[in-house]
């Protein structure tokens, strides 16, 4: 399998994010990718502020117009595509991710289980978490999702170990408080923790991080990497860079 981990620069404009996602997914397909993975909330941005009058308008239906456009691309290019989306279902909002099949179907939908994507005082009847962790059997192997803080939850790590997916898709959104893209700090303080947590899952983990300016979730510094089941970093993309990490797995 050739995997493409995409780091797009997320904007306030969902239409622009969708157009960029289509462009970069096509570039990945042109390079021979079988699977294309985008970061957490890559389509909608993490610009929620715990005010439902603002936040519910960000959420996208799944399935809905945006996923239909992306599904058209997966059918045309015969690729798998995973992407993070703030999902609206009725009057509820979730931090979700979908894996679209080469037939344009939603093969797997996952709702983040840990709650840190919103504030502690957010209305729990609106700002919701998922409970289900499942895997999808495919010709490329089995896939499962975790999103961001899920990787640091010991119970969820154990659930992944029981599930035993071949490939763990991990879209996330990490930033430093000062809004910097400090590669040395990442290498020294953050990367070892992410690698260690990925190793604990027992699955090869494909992780790609949100890249945005400071006014979108205080910014996200981007970067991507693949960590094998034994904790080896197979390859990585530096912070602060729009780009595509292509890895043969």
Description:
- Helices cover 25% and strands 30% of the residues.
- By secondary structure, the protein is of the alpha/beta class.
- It has a single domain, classed as Nitrilase/N-carbamoyl-D-aminoacid amidohydrolase.
- The strands form three sheets. The chain has a six-stranded mixed beta sheet. A six-stranded mixed beta sheet has the order 7-8-9-10-13-14.
- A hairpin with a 2-residue loop joins strand 4 (80-89) and strand 5 (92-100).
- The N and C termini lie close together (5 Å).
- 44% of the residues are buried.
- The model has no long low-confidence stretch (mean pLDDT 95).
Keywords:
alpha/beta; Nitrilase/N-carbamoyl-D-aminoacid amidohydrolase; six-stranded mixed beta sheet; 15 strands
* Spatial shape: globular
Strand count: 15
Compute the number of helices.
Answer: 5
Low-confidence stretches: none
For the record, give the distance between the C-alpha atoms at the N and C termini, rounded to a whole number: 5 Å
What is the average of the pLDDT values?
Answer: 95
Estimated structural class: alpha/beta
Helicity level: 25-40%
CATH-assigned fold name: Nitrilase/N-carbamoyl-D-aminoacid amidohydrolase
The gist of it:
With 249 residues, this protein is an alpha/beta fold. The protein has 5 helices and 15 strands.
Topology, element by element:
Blueprint: E1 2-7, E2 9-10, H1 14-30, E3 35-37, H2 52-55, H3 65-77, E4 80-89, E5 92-100, E6 106-111, E7 136-138, E8 141-145, H4 154-163, E9 167-172, H5 183-201, E10 204-209, E11 211-212, E12 220-221, E13 224-227, E14 233-237, E15 243-248
Parallel strand pairs: 1-3, 2-11, 3-4, 8-9, 9-10
Antiparallel strand pairs: 1-15, 4-5, 5-6, 7-8, 10-13, 11-12, 13-14
């Amino acid at each position: 399998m050739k995997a493409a981990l995409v780091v797009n620069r997320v904007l306030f404009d969902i239409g622009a994010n969708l157009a960029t996602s289509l462009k970069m997914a096509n570039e990945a397909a042109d390079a021979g990718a079988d699977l294309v993975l985008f970061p957490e909330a890559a389509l909608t941005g993490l610009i929620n502020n715990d005010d439902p009058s603002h936040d519910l308008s960000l959420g996208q239906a799944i399935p809905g117009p945006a996923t239909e456009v992306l599904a058209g691309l997966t059918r045309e290019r015969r690729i798998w595509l995973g992407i993070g989306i703030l999902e609206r279902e009725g009057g509820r909002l979730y931090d979700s991710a979908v894996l679209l099949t080469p037939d344009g179907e939603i093969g797997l939908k996952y709702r983040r289980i840990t709650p840190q994507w919103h504030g502690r005082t957010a209305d729990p009847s609106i700002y919701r978490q998922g409970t289900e962790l499942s895997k999808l059997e495919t010709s490329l192997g089995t896939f499962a999702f975790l999103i961001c803080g899920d990787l640091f939850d010991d119970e969820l790590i154990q659930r992944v170990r029981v599930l035993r997916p071949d490939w763990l898709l991990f879209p996330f959104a990490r930033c430093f408080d000062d809004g910097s893209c400090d590669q040395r700090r990442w290498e020294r303080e953050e990367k070892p923790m992410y690698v260690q947590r990925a190793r604990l899952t027992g699955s090869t983990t494909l992780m790609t991080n949100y890249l945005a300016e400071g006014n979108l979730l205080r910014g996200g510094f981007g970067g991507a990497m693949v960590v094998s089941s034994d904790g080896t970093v197979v390859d990585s993309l530096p912070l602060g860079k729009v780009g595509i990490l292509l890895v043969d797995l």
